[in-house]
Write a structure and sequence with these properties.
By secondary structure, this protein is mostly beta strands. Helix 1 runs antiparallel to helix 4. A hairpin with a 2-residue loop joins strand 14 and strand 15. Helix content is 13%, strand content 36%. The chain folds into 2 domains: 75 residues, Orthogonal Bundle (Arc Repressor Mutant, subunit A); 210 residues, Galactose-binding domain-like (Jelly Rolls). It has 4 helices and 19 strands.
């Protein structure tokens, strides 16, 4: 589950703001099918009090109920929770931004499971890489593959009198598992201008709740949303989500080309080969394409 700092996330924050409810979550983590009586005994509270706390957890989307005979069984619906803070204010450089639709890749090599999804349906046949060259791919809002890469290009508009100060890449990413698997790590490697910047391990292919912008036609049990990643490359190294990432800096890149080449790859020798899903506009939790921003002075 992914939270932000809007009012829409308040139910989850309120549900977690209780020592009793935190203890309930810990109990359900170790014994995923406890009923109200079981929890009441463990916590030395009345069943009525326990049920009140369970209802708050359910309203926040953290747990679910199912009937087993006359018992009401509680089970966790969420493996992990991520909190996204507002973007930090950038330095006072000049900048231009390129928004690249996720289907506008210029090179690819993918293996099933793979596919593309648009506003109203899948694009071509799922698990057939041949459809990745269909002109209809430009309409894709979500693309996924189990192994291989997708490569995109953004224009390099810097003149000789402009000095490159920083590059930012923002994209919503997840793993790829047939249907979905909330615990399915995958090593996704970022490349800029054919230089390997670093590898981020996606924790899963999420379908615990529907994506905020995922179209209604997409089934509940497939990729719903990813995690927004912001990769920044500066003159003294690279950062991922504001944290030090690798030693690769702007000096490592050939920036005299007409374009910036951006690649997302699950390498053949990756420790966690769990695939890659890229979410674009009208899909996932962020209504955005791949955003590439160039800062200069």
């Amino acid at each position: 589950m992914q939270l932000d700092l809007t009012d829409a996330s308040l139910p989850a924050y309120k549900a977690l703001a209780s020592s009793v409810r935190l203890r309930i979550i810990r109990l359900l983590s170790s014994n995923p099918r406890m009923n109200v009586t079981d929890l009441a005994v463990q916590l030395n509270l009345s069943p009525a009090i326990i049920l009140m706390h369970l209802n708050k957890l359910e309203a926040a989307g953290l747990i679910g109920f199912e009937k087993k005979g006359h018992n009401k069984i509680s089970k966790l619906k969420v493996d992990e929770i991520y909190v996204r803070f507002p973007k930090k204010i950038y330095s006072a450089f000049e900048a231009y931004e390129t928004q690249i639709p996720v289907g506008q890749y210029t090179a690819f090599s993918v293996q099933p499971s793979c596919g593309l999804a648009g506003e109203k349906d899948y694009i071509g046949k799922v698990d057939n890489p041949s459809y990745f060259m269909s002109p209809e791919r430009m309409k894709a809002g979500m693309v996924w593959f189990s192994n291989g890469f997708l490569e995109y290009q953004a224009p390099n508009l810097l003149n000789a009198d402009k000095h490159l100060e920083m590059l930012d890449l923002s994209v919503e990413l997840g793993s790829e598992f047939p249907f979905s698997n909330n615990v399915w790590p995958s090593d996704i490697t970022f490349f800029i201008n054919n230089i390997e910047i670093g590898t981020w391990t996606s924790p899963g292919d999420f379908a615990d709740v529907r994506g905020k912008y995922t179209p209604a036609w997409l089934p509940d049990n497939v990729n719903q949303y990813g995690i927004q990643k912001i990769l920044r490359i500066t003159g003294h190294g690279s950062y991922l989500d504001g944290q030090p990432f690798t030693d690769i800096s702007l000096d490592s890149l050939d920036t005299n080309q007409q374009t910036f080449t951006i690649r997302f790859e699950v390498k053949n020798d990756a420790k966690n080969q769990g695939g890659c899903t890229i979410f674009g506009k009208e899909f996932g939790n962020y209504n955005q394409d791949i955003v590439f921003k160039v800062f200069y002075s």
